[in-house]
Amino acid sequence: MTVPRVVIVDDHQMFRAGVRVELADAVEIVGDAEDVESAVQVIRSTAPDVVLLDVHLPGGGGKAVIEHVSATTPEVRFLALSVSDAAEDVIGVIRAGARGYVTKTISGPELADAVRRVADGDAVFSPRLAGFVLDAFAGSAEVRVVDPELDQLTTREREVLRLIARGYTYKELARRLEISVKTVETHVSAVLRKLQLSSRHELTRWATDRRLI
After folding, report:
1. Which of 2, 58, 136, 209 has the most CB atoms in a 10 Å sphere around its CB?
2. How does 143-182 read in b/e, with b if 16+ C-beta sit within 10 Å?
3. Side-by-side strand order, sheet with 124-125
4. CA atoms within 13 A of residue 169's CA, in its CB half-sphere
């Protein structure tokens, strides 16, 4: 059985040390970080299977980490591990792309199991938190019904898709996302390739049909 490679992101050094001890026999810890900037650097340099991610971090929070990393390293999976069980925190980080959310009351063996399941592609939630997700997404037009084509896209690629479909030019999109025009072109090319589309017009129609605009 493959041992998951894990990065721990939390602004409390003592907590990171405790998680290392709890998971020492179950996973390979390849790095840790205390804020958004250092987290993005460590994740990009180590390419872990799973990132254990606190929701509240200096520099922008867990959502910011996911958004930055997903643009360049979409294969990394995130499992939120937080003291907070507030619905807005749970929904926010799941919308950003996390594969699960558990609270810090979880036991060591339960956390190890959650990490392995997320590494295998499962979604993992503490029971009460799963209810938040179901309630928030039920009947929402923005909620993605399982769509194999859309699921191919990274968080940043979906963002680019929506903005291009809304009529943004490459320069406007670059300014809005604070990236270069060349990077925009790279994302658009990736979206067209993954969705097997050949033009901006087809992309707009594809997004409109799925009510993504």
Report:
1. 136
2. eeeeeeebeebbbbbbbbbebbbeebebeebbeebebeee
3. 28-33, 5-9, 50-53, 77-82, 100-103, 124-125
4. 2
Q: Write the CA distances from 4 to 24, 26, 53, 116, integer angstroms.
A: 11, 8, 15, 7
Per-residue pLDDT of 84-94, as tens digits, reads 877 777 888 88
Work out the end-to-end distance of the chain between its first and last CA atoms, rounded to an integer number of angstroms.
Answer: 42
Helix, strand or coil, per DSSP, at residue 51: strand
Which residues make Cβ contacts (< 8 Å) with residue 113, sequence separation at least 6? none
* Secondary structure (DSSP) of 77-90: EEEEEES---HHHH
The pTM of the full predicted model, rounded to 2 decimals, is 0.63
pLDDT digits (tens, 9 = 90+) for 108-135: 999 999 999 999 999 898 877 777 666 6
CA separation, residue 143 to residues 92, 138, 147 (Å)? 13, 8, 11
Domains with residue ranges and CATH for the chain: 5-137 (3.40.50.2300), 150-209 (1.10.10.10)
